[in-house]
Design goal:
The complex is a heterotrimer of chains A (355), B (546) and C (195). By secondary structure, chain A is α+β, with helices and mostly antiparallel strands. Chain A has helices at residues 2-22, 30-63, 81-110, 224-239, 318-321, and strands at residues 117-124, 127-132, 137-140, 148-153, 158-164, 169-173, 178-182, 188-192, 198-204, 216-222, 250-256, 259-260, 264-268, 274-279, 285-291, 299-307, 310-315, 326-332, 336-346. In chain A, a hairpin with a 4-residue loop joins strand 2 (127-132) and strand 3. With 195 residues, chain C is an all-alpha fold. Classes of the chains: A alpha+beta (355), B mainly alpha (546), C mainly alpha (195).
Chain lengths: 355, 546, 195
């Protein structure tokens, strides 16, 4: 009875293996195609080894079961050195066959062609943000509220500079067959070349605490025209941001649930100004910093990071209040672009409440 | 006064002194039994935690556990299963069997042996007590990756302290095993004659001695980071989170080999007995154990491919090389069964289940050994499937084989054969139902350690299936506990050589063995002294045995 | 019972050095423990541009040199003591053991003094983190070694150490030499190699 059972089991196992193979996602980048192929190469070897070993096991179970009443002792063979060496060789051949395939795929994935688009992606507890500094675009998710949505053009190499603000995260897009840790203080660089237009889900894969399970993001692969349109739209939405200078040039800003209460701060040039930051996030560090622009190459001013719930006030230095009228950039340096906004210096006497 | 009341006082005393006896014993057999109790207790707790996890994941949405609770539960599930169920279980087998198998009176350091045991429940309860404190238990996974593990409340400290205690226990135990095996063998019991199980204990102990202190160092750094203001793992001050990972995995990978090695040892004892043959290629098995021991210190960074900060080809090739000695073991087990006369008693069923399942666990690891492929499935449910095929399909099936095999030696009673066969089939089905679908979930991009997922991800059906499987496993484990409970109430009826085909010395003494282990020490002239005794008796007595 | 006698014989031959073997294994584990810390030290150091960091400065050499002399001397003294025990001169061993313990205590006192003179605290960055944790854990090992040697001292004064039975002496000596070697590593890492 149980021998037929076992054959059924083997059949089921084979079926599951095949259906598992069908379960792989369609690869959506050039790099993913390499990995996808590698998966099937290993699968072929795996099936071969499984059939040999599980088959031998099954054979032994069926063929060498003790018949009732058979009390004769089987031959007491202990195995020869030659056989032991042969078994080692069997494994060596498999590994020698396998290793080069892996290395070739790896070499292809790790080629970093000259990118058309470069994106700085930052993970923080618990959202992603992406800065396209050449295009002047910043997009970000909002913890527990909405995922990051980023667009990339099809058929172009996209370079990702990946870093974390706090603990380890992992930037993972299943259809791209790729994940990479976002490490604090140790940027990782890699390239995707998406080949299929579509919307792909991604998610943090390295456990990072309470909000890990919902630290999702979306990558939209679009054609170049759509991509340009998206960039223009995002850029405009940043340029469009506007607000009147604060009364008495006394700015006030509140951090709550790892986001600011506003994405726009404005002062009047030439007058002394101050900032008060309320941090309502218990146990979480925030700071406030004013930068030249999205590319964050020059920082004009920053208050030290402090933990909530607390309030911190400071006068803005001359360097800031004397800035040429125009649009600048502010953010919490701990959380980066996901807590950022436009810092506007209005020319003096341009009229209050203009906006 | 004592004289007058003596008759009334006399009653409770034997019981109290029996308790005291267990609390203060230095007898390796009693300590081994204490290890079994400890392990089965934590196995039950860890199993209940696993059911909570699976129940939560059965459907999308958070129904039973809040994300914070979920994170605590999966952390404690992993920690308890690895550090307080599997490893101590193996230490239990080692304690009970090693002195018997090498013909010794006891372990080399009986009092240190008792200390190693008693540290365990202390450490385990310290970790568990995290559930009672504000902020809950440690919730950084059993891997405790810094800097995440620097966050979190005092539950994290309890996790850290508990593991320091458990680590000390394992280290002392390992030293004890090594000295015992090297120095306490009976006359004639040369190193190449000791049972292969003892080789497994030796290899495991070597790994423990060299690996656990590295983890201890990491845990102490973590404590300093949390309370003294050091910055080892803080990249903004010159430290690096990779310091934790390197230290943890330098320990962690040998650790998983410790967990599987003793299962290999158990299975290598069981299969010959129920095949009626000697172990095929004893030297090959020993060589494989030692190769795995050596290689396991060169593979740790294969857990870190995705950090982008390790030498990929080196750690890839060492990882694939480990499949050579492992592969040889399969051929040795099959070679042992080949042309034998197989008896499908419960220990043999579990040993065969072990071979079949551990093979899958070995093979699905090959995908991850290739860095390019690892980038696609690392930290997904593929890893969860892999670790459970190795540690459940492998180690737990091996432990069950050992349980059914040596239960008559430990207690003098057989576990029920019927219940054993039922347990085996239910466990095999439940196990595959739970963990096979996780391969597919991994390929579909479901990350591990997530408290919840969306209904539109396409993961729901397989998760529900896995949850059903988990309950099936629970039934099989319940059958095991029932079997132990019922069997312990039966009269003692196990003969010395309980399966009638034993090879190693534990089968030469009574079941259970006397306090001094052997009334008469048999001569050791080969690696199968009890087989020799049987042959001798048969030659002497002819057909006189009934 | 013949079986038991057989065992006793066997143990008389092999069992003598069990404590020594146990200690060798323990020290092997301890070596890996410190290797992990040194691994952290060197991985940080190789990625740092200036070492030690400017804010810390190059440490003074005077007190650590005295510490080194104290510990190395203590190891030599103890080894002479072991030679004494091996030739049965227990009284001489007791005196040398006493001197070793004294040198160990001096080491601890002087290092505590050295700590009090430092200009940086444990919270002041990665160098102080490594410095305090590594030397602190070593100090704990020295203290443990002093306790171990004191236990041996107790056994010696109560007559439990003899030419025939002196494994505790051998075992404790292995540990003490190990602690000494670790200090030489620390001395090189934190003082000598940064000049």
């Amino acid at each position: 009875m149980s021998s037929t059972h076992r054959f059924v089991r083997l059949g089921v196992a084979a079926l599951v293996l095949v259906s598992m193979a069908a379960c792989t996602e369609q690869p959506a980048t050039e790099q993913a195609q390499q990995t996808h192929r590698l998966f099937y190469i290993i699968l072929a070897l795996a099936i071969f080894v499984s059939v040999v070993v599980e088959g031998a096991l099954l054979w032994a179970i069926v063929r060498y079961r003790r018949r009732p009443g058979d009390d004769e002792e089987p031959p007491q063979r202990e195995g020869t050195t030659r056989m032991i060496i042969a078994f080692f060789l069997f494994g060596t051949v498999i590994v020698a066959a396998l290793f080069p395939f892996g290395e070739v795929a790896l070499g292809n994935i790790e080629q970093n062609p000259t990118p058309i688009v470069t994106i700085d992606v930052t993970g923080s507890q618990w959202q992603w943000s992406a800065v396209y500094s050449n295009e002047g675009v910043v997009v970000s998710g909002k913890t527990f509220v909405r995922p990051l949505v980023m667009e990339v053009p099809v058929d172009e190499p996209v370079r990702i500079n990946l870093v974390s603000n706090d603990v380890m995260h992992e930037f993972f897009v299943p259809a791209f067959y790729f994940m990479r840790n976002a490490l604090p203080g140790h940027p990782n660089v890699f390239t995707w070349t998406p080949t299929r237009i579509g919307t792909y889900r991604g998610q943090c894969a390295e456990f990072c605490g309470l909000g890990h399970y919902q630290m999702r993001f979306i990558v939209k692969v679009v054609n170049p025209t759509d991509y340009q349109a998206w960039v223009q739209k995002e850029r405009k939405s940043i340029l469009k941001i506007n607000c009147p200078p604060a009364a008495g040039n006394n700015l006030e800003l509140t951090a709550h649930n790892i986001s600011w209460n506003t994405n726009c701060l404005a002062i009047t040039a030439g007058q002394s100004a101050s900032i008060t930051v309320h941090n309502l996030d218990a146990g979480i560090d925030h700071n406030f910093a004013i930068w030249n622009s999205l590319d964050t190459t020059h920082q004009y001013f920053a208050i030290p990071k402090f933990s909530g719930v607390a309030t911190h006030s400071a006068n803005l230095p001359q360097e800031v209040s004397q800035l040429k009228p125009g649009k600048y950039y502010f953010q919490c340096n701990v959380h980066g672009p996901s807590m950022s906004g436009v810092f506007i210096v209005e020319p003096a006497g341009s009229g209050q409440g203009g906006g | 006064m004592a004289v007058v009341k003596a008759p009334t006082l006399a009653r409770p005393e034997p019981f109290r002194s029996r308790i005291l006896d267990w609390l203060t014993t230095t007898d390796h057999k009693k300590i081994g039994i204490l290890y079994f109790f400890n392990s089965l207790g934590f196995f039950a707790i860890g199993g209940i935690l696993a059911l909570l996890l699976r129940t939560e994941l059965a459907r999308p949405g958070t129904q039973f556990l809040s994300p914070h609770a979920y994170n605590q539960v999966f952390t404690e599930h992993g920690t308890l299963m690895i550090f307080l169920f599997v490893f101590p279980m193996l230490a239990g087998f080692g304690n009970f069997l090693v002195p018997l198998q090498i013909g010794a009176l006891d372990m080399a350091f009986p009092r240190i042996n008792a200390l190693s045991f008693w540290l365990l429940p202390v450490g385990g309860l310290t970790i568990l007590s995290g559930f009672l404190v504000k902020g809950g238990a440690g919730a950084s996974g059993w891997t405790g990756f810094a800097p995440l593990s620097v966050q979190g409340g005092s539950g994290m400290d309890l996790w850290d302290l508990g593991l320091l205690i458990v680590g000390t226990s394992s280290l002392l135990g390992a030293i004890n095993f090594l000295v015992t095996i090297v120095r306490m063998r009976a006359p004639g019991m040369t190193m190449m004659r000791i049972p292969v199980f003892c080789w497994a204990v030796l290899a495991t102990s070597l790994l423990a001695v060299l690996a656990i202190p590295v983890f201890t160092a990491a845990l102490l750094m973590l404590l300093a980071e949390r309370h003294l203001g050091t910055v080892f793992f803080d990249a903004s001050h010159g430290g690096s989170p990779l310091i934790w990972q390197h230290a943890f995995w330098f320990f962690g990978h040998p650790e998983v080999y410790m967990l599987i090695l003793i299962a290999w040892g158990i299975v290598s004892e069981v299969i010959p007995v129920f095949s009626g043959k000697p172990l095929y290629g004893y030297r090959g098995v020993v060589l494989s154990f030692l190769m795995v021991t050596a290689l396991s210190f060169t593979v740790w960074a294969h857990h870190m491919f995705a950090t982008g900060a390790v030498e990929l080809p080196f750690f890839s090739i060492t990882t694939e090389l480990i499949s050579l000695p492992t592969g040889v073991l399969f051929f040795m087990w099959l070679g042992t069964m080949w042309k034998g006369k197989l008896r499908f008693e419960p220990p043999m069923l579990f040993a065969i289940g072990f071979i079949a399942m551990f093979l899958i666990g070995g093979i699905d690891g090959v995908w991850m050994a290739s860095p390019a492929m690892d980038f696609a499935i690392h930290d997904t449910y593929w890893v969860v499937a892999h670790i459970h095929y190795v540690l459940f399909g492998g180690t737990v099936f091996g432990i069950m084989a050992g349980m059914y095999y040596w239960f008559p030696k430990v207690t003098g009673r057989f576990l029920s054969r019927r219940l054993g066969i039922w347990q085996f089939w239910i466990q095999l089905i439940g196990f595959n139902l739970t963990f096979f679908p996780m391969h597919v979930l991994g390929l579909r991009g479901m990350p591990r350690r997530i408290a919840d997922y969306l209904p539109n991800e396409g993961w729901t059906g397989l998760n529900t299936l896995a949850t059903i499987g988990a309950y099936v496993i629970a039934v099989s484990i319940a059958l095991f506990f029932i079997n132990v409970f019922v069997s312990l109430r039966k009269p003692r009826d196990a003969p010395d050589d309980a399966w009638g085909a034993g090879n190693s010395l534990e089968w030469a003494t009574t079941s259970p063995p006397p306090a001094h282990n052997f009334d008469v020490m048999p001569e050791v002239r080969s690696g199968r002294p009890v087989y020799d005794m049987r042959m001798h008796a048969r030659a002497q007595g002819g057909g006189s045995t009934p | 019972m013949s079986a038991t006698e057989l065992f006793t014989d066997e143990r008389a031959v092999r069992g003598t050095s069990s404590p020594v073997m146990g200690m060798v294994l323990f020290v092997a584990g301890e070596a890996l423990f410190f290797a992990a810390l040194f691994g952290a030290y060197f991985s940080v150091r190789t990625s740092a541009s200036v070492w030690p960091p400017k804010s810390i400065g190059v440490p003074e050499l005077a007190v650590p040199s005295v510490l080194t002399v104290l510990l190395v001397t203590s190891s030599v003294v103890l080894q002479i003591g072991v030679a004494a025990v091996r030739s049965g001169r227990i009284d001489s061993f007791r005196n040398l053991l006493g001197l070793t313990i004294l040198l160990g205590l001096c080491f601890l006192a002087l290092q505590a003094y050295d700590y009090s003179q430092l200009t940086f605290g444990i919270r002041d960055g990665i160098y102080p983190s490594l410095f305090y944790v590594m030397t602190g854990l070593h100090m704990a090992h020295v203290a443990g070694g002093v306790v171990l040697l004191s236990l041996v001292m107790g056994q010696t004064t109560t007559g439990q150490i003899s030419l025939q039975r002196h494994e505790p002496v051998e075992a404790a000596t292995i540990y003490w030499h190990f602690v000494d070697i670790v200090w030489l590593g620390l001395f090189t890492a934190f003082y000598l190699s940064v000049r």
